[in-house]
Design goal:
single chain, alpha/beta, 3 domains, 8 helices, disordered C terminus
Length: 342
């Protein structure tokens, strides 16, 4: 078994097309056994590079980055609200602005070093990706309970539905090759104090956003699909497409993959990716008996056939539940609630 290496996403603002090509080369050169880098849309990126010569400091202390291409748009950000690593290319246009991290794009070593530093900031995210990938590989053989992942007798990770999931922050993808999953009794596991912790839903959701694997089971492409419950996540983590798909399945329980394509206009690959994220956190199901109360009422009288069992549908969804969302009128086009807030 080979655990995949996560791809981190780099967003650019203020760079010309020629500069973007240089940045893409630097991203390729920054690959390590622990992570790779790729350019991505600015809003979806894990980290940002801002062109220092096109960055202005506004009177309100916000930053405005002017576009370098005719079709581009300026970007305005408040650094105090930024939740990801940011670096500025030299030289800087704003003389009074002293950023925490700078680099020289034209110097390959400087650009690559900046990305290595970014990866260091994201060590917990990288380790959690490796753990989630191992869960995806081992899920057919895992049962309900608490789990310890051991590597040559040493604790590598812990997965517990109440405590959450935690992994050694220094873990590499190779550490999970040959690792042993050991089932423990509930309450028999402990998470080291210095290990960052995430809910299992959060862990698998982030994995679904990054992996190149197709996580959607084959029968989800042919069987009727049903809304089960909202993801136990902050709403800001979901994209409009996720909310749209949940809305469609609340309004019309039992829609197929093909029907969802027609109703949403999403292409095959994109639809599978969005459904995969909802699947791994237990928000959709192909079994009408596991659907939400609203969906169950909507399909009352239909024949219900059991779907294949999955760790994502059963084990990860046994925690405390929100109350089921009530049935909504067809004209109500809002997203299903409740959604977990920050």
């Amino acid at each position: 078994m080979t655990i995949e290496v996560p791809a981190l996403r780099l967003g650019l603002a203020g760079f010309s097309e020629a500069q973007q090509k240089v940045a893409a080369d630097a991203a390729k050169a920054a690959a390590t056994p622990r992570s790779t880098w790729e350019l991505a849309p600015f809003a979806e990126a894990d980290a940002w590079w801002l062109e220092g010569r096109r960055t202005m400091l506004m009177p309100n202390k916000h930053l405005r980055v002017q576009p370098a291409v005719p079709s581009g748009r300026s970007v305005q950000i408040a650094l105090a609200d930024v939740d990801r690593p940011v670096a500025f290319s030299l030289p800087l246009a704003a003389p009074d602005f002293k950023p925490a991290m700078t680099f020289t794009l034209e110097e390959a070593h400087s650009a690559v070093q900046a990305l290595h530093q970014f990866a260091g900031f994201m060590h917990a995210t990288l380790a959690q990706f490796c753990l989630a990938a191992s869960i995806a590989d081992n899920q057919p053989t895992l049962g309900a309970g608490s789990w310890e992942v051991l590597r040559e007798g040493d604790l590598l990770a812990v997965v517990d539905l109440k405590l959450g999931a935690a992994v050694d922050p220094s873990a590499l993808p190779s550490h999970f090759e040959g690792a042993t999953w050991c089932v423990r009794e509930y309450g028999a596991v402990m998470i080291p104090l210095n290990w960052p912790r995430a809910s299992v839903s959060q862990l698998m959701w982030q994995y679904a956003q990054r992996t190149q694997r197709d996580l959607l089971p084959p029968h989800y492409r042919t069987k009727p699909l049903f809304f089960r419950r909202p993801p136990r996540l902050a709403q800001r983590q979901m994209r409009d497409a996720h909310l749209l798909l949940m809305r469609e399945l609340v309004a019309q329980p039992g829609m197929t993959f093909e029907a969802l394509q027609q109703s949403t206009g999403l292409a095959d690959v994109a639809l599978a990716r969005y459904l995969s994220a909802l699947y791994v956190v237990g928000s959709i199901t192909s079994n009408s008996r596991r659907a939400s109360a609203a969906a169950t009422l909507a399909v009352h009288g239909r024949d219900a056939t059991a779907s294949q069992q999955s760790i994502f549908e059963s084990v990860m969804d046994t925690g405390p539940r929100h109350s089921e969302p009530p049935a909504r009128p067809r004209q109500d086009l809002t997203a299903p609630l409740p959604l977990t807030r920050d």
